[in-house]
Specification:
This protein is an alpha/beta fold. The protein contains four helices and four strands; from the N terminus they run βααβαβαβ.
Length: about 100
Amino acid sequence: MLYLFIGEDNVSKDRKIAILKKENLEDNSYHFDYELLHADLLDPVKLKELLNSFPTRSKKKVIIIRSADKLSLPNEKILLSYVKSMRQDTVLVLDT
């Protein structure tokens, strides 16, 4: 699943993210299957590794990328390639 959050209403976005986490993560899996990333600080190697990894404790993993509009060109290419054949065990949220 892919979500795109656009706008300045961070309270509503955070509320929806909390719902997605509750729906997709087991209580004991937050440290293993949840990632909060910031696009302007994101290393392409780490992004590729996270997108290709499997969830460890839950049926799905949740990856949030804040400030997605600030992704570097290499990260954009990785993300576009991933989205074309996105895995069913990942919930990806792009926040801008």
